[in-house]
Structure formats: structure tokens, C-alpha cells
């Protein structure tokens, strides 16, 4: 832990505040033979950063979607229905521990979500004074929280999850996305506990940077489709929305040849056989996100076979945090000529 002290003559000195205070250092009391495990501290921090970054990107895409729909960017019934223009994007967090608090601050600052659109349910709301000072409502009422929210982040302990699921399962709207950080509970088990199909459980890797896992990207995009299906938006309009807002970020070398850039098609999300008889004005079918994350889908096959689409989604992710990839960065993220396998599709955004 370092601090800066200012001397009278204007010279800045750098000083270790813990120098000579060995008992206050993190590694104090850890036997020498066990210090090899201290790397887990850094690993835990890295996974927390990745978890918050993915959740932020997820919420950013939801905001883009809602702005496009409710901002009259689409034609037809959606644009003419006044009820679409005033809906808010409400985010709830269940659990006010370390992850829940970190996630709340990140969402407020980086999405950004207005404080009135973020609420936290915790058994100890009094411990969230810093968030309450910002204007975030903190209380202990899980069922009320999920009945209000469009997206609910589960940041609780595995031992608490069964009781929480019993409390909230009857209050969940079908379109509410449950985003679980509880790694010990598989998504198939969570589906049974909640009797709910709109569930996301991100997958992480600790590989020297933030990893965009193909199944996470897939689940996120199918969740976006479910939002549009709940609003009965035709699949043609949805594809237009995805192409205009999610594939609009290009690399410099493809700006001149945008015609060759990837575009989402109906068969990227449903089978070719099903697509042949799909009416133009029909919304996408409702997708079970648990099945999407556990099985191969048309989109996972398409994404694995399309390096250009992988590049564009990686670029979209980076640009959402204000990071512009150069041509050299692009080569590091995905080496040209790499085979379309798991190592290729689990791309890294350092």
C-alpha cells in the first residue's frame, strides 16, 4: 500500500505505509510453505473484475436495445404504442456482500444506471450506507425486488440460494432475466429451483485477460431476442435492430468494405428447416436460455465458423468500455488463420 507525501520544499516522497508493520500485511501469518497459494488472491480479483465487466456489457446492450425500441427507431406497432416510450430499465441485486456492492458501483458508474433504477435486497441493508447515500434503495424483500426488476443479479451464497428461489419464483415475470453469479449451482438446477427459463449463468476463465466465452455471448444474444419476443416485435425488425446497433462497430480495415461485414440472419438463431416456413411478421420463438447454454445451437455453430463475427463482437465489447482495438490488438486477440475451435472462439480482451 503506497501513499504520496508532500514536503515543504515541494519534493514528493513515495512511502510504503505498511513498512515495518508486518502484522498488517495480507501475507502475515501464512506459513512459508503455503505462500504459493497467495496467487489465488490475484485470481479472485481477476474473476471479480471479469464478472463485473461482463455484467456491465450485458446491461449496456439491454439499454441500447430499449433505446432503439422505445425511442421509436423501429417502425410499425412498436413506434405507435405510447406505452413503449416510458418504460424504465430496472436492475435488482440480491445480496449485499463484496460482489453485490462492487457490482452496484460498477453498474452505476459504467453503464451508467440511474440510482432510482437500481435496488438491492440484502439481509443487512444497514451495511450498504455508501450506496444509500448515492440514492440506491436498499432493503430486505426479495420477492418485491424481482417483481420490480427487468434484470436480477444473484450475488448470494450457494447455501442461501434455495430459500431465495422459494421466495421469488412466484414473483418473477417471464421476461425478467435472472443473471446468476452463484457458480456452485448449475443453470439446470437453478431452472428447477425457480421454475423459470430466462436464466443466464456466465462462464469465466482466468487466462491473463477478460475472456469472451462463446456460450456466454450466445446466451446474452438469445436473452435479447426474448426481450423482443415479449414485446411481440417481428423477427425482421429484430434482425434490423441487431445489425444496426450490435454490429455497427467496425475495424478500420473493414470500414471501406462494410458490405463484406457480418450481418445477422434468421438462420443464425433458428434451424434452416424451421426458418423456411417462418412468417415475416412473426416474432422469434421464446428461447429457454438454460437449454441455449447447455446445448449446441445454430448461433454457436455460426459464431464458431465466423472469425469476422467474433472480431466484430469483440470490438463491440471493447468499444463499450471506451477501448479501441488497433490492427495489432486484433491480431493478438485472434490470430489470422486460426481454426474455428474453442481456443479461437474464447477470445480475449486484455
UniProtKB/TrEMBL annotation:
Compositional bias annotation for Basic and acidic residues: 341-350
Domain Pyrroline-5-carboxylate reductase catalytic N-terminal: 91-178
Positions of transmembrane segments: none
Pfam families with a match to the protein in the record: F420_oxidored (PF03807)
Annotated stretches, region: Disordered: 328-350
Family the UniProt entry places it in: Belongs to the pyrroline-5-carboxylate reductase family.
PANTHER family per UniProt: NADP-DEPENDENT OXIDOREDUCTASE DOMAIN-CONTAINING PROTEIN 1 (PTHR11645:SF58), PYRROLINE-5-CARBOXYLATE REDUCTASE (PTHR11645)
Name of protein: NADP-dependent oxidoreductase domain-containing protein 1
Organism: Echinops telfairi (Lesser hedgehog tenrec)
Amino acid at each position: 500500500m503506497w501513499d504520496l507525501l508532500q514536503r515543504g520544499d515541494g519534493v514528493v516522497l513515495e512511502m510504503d505505509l505498511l513498512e515495518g508493520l508486518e502484522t498488517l500485511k495480507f501475507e502475515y501469518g501464512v506459513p512459508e510453505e503455503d505462500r504459493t497459494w497467495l496467487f489465488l488472491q490475484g485470481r479472485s480479483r481477476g474473476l471479480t473484475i471479469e464478472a463485473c465487466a461482463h455484467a456491465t456489457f450485458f446491461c449496456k446492450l439491454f439499454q441500447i436495445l430499449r433505446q432503439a425500441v422505445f425511442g421509436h427507431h423501429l417502425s410499425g406497432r412498436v413506434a405507435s404504442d405510447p406505452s413503449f416510450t416510458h418504460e424504465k430499465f430496472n436492475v435488482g441485486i440480491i445480496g449485499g456482500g463484496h460482489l453485490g456492492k462492487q457490482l452496484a458501483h460498477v453498474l452505476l458508474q459504467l453503464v451508467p444506471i440511474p440510482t432510482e433504477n437500481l435496488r438491492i435486497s440484502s439481509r443487512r441493508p444497514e451495511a450498504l450506507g455508501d450506496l444509500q447515500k448515492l440514492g440506491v434503495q436498499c432493503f430486505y424483500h426479495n420477492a418485491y425486488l424481482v417483481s420490480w426488476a427487468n434484470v436480477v443479479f444473484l450475488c448470494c451464497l450457494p447455501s442461501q440460494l434455495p430459500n431465495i428461489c422459494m421466495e421469488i419464483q412466484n414473483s418473477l415475470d417471464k421476461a425478467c432475466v435472472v443473471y446468476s453469479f452463484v457458480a456452485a449451482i448449475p443453470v439446470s438446477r437453478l431452472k428447477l429451483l425457480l421454475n423459470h427459463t430466462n436464466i443466464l449463468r456466465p462462464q469465466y476463465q482466468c487466462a491473463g485477460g477478460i475472456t469472451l466465452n462463446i456460450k456466454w455471448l450466445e446466451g446474452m444474444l438469445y436473452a435479447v431476442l426474448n426481450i423482443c419476443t415479449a414485446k411481440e416485435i417481428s423477427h425482421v425488425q429484430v434482425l434490423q435492430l441487431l445489425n444496426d446497433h450490435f454490429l455497427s462497430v467496425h475495424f478500420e480495415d473493414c470500414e471501406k468494405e462494410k458490405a463484406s461485414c457480418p450481418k445477422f440472419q434468421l438462420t443464425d438463431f433458428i434451424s434452416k428447416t424451421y426458418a423456411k416456413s417462418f412468417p415475416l411478421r412473426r416474432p422469434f420463438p421464446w428461447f429457454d436460455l438454460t437449454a441455449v447454454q447447455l446445448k449446441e445451437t445454430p448461433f454457436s455453430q455460426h459464431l464458431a465458423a465466423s472469425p469476422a463475427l467474433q472480431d466484430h463482437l469483440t470490438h463491440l465489447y471493447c468499444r463499450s468500455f471506451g477501448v479501441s482495438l488497433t490492427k495489432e490488438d486484433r491480431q493478438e486477440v485472434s490470430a489470422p488463420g486460426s481454426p474455428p475451435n474453442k481456443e479461437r472462439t474464447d477470445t480475449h480482451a486484455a
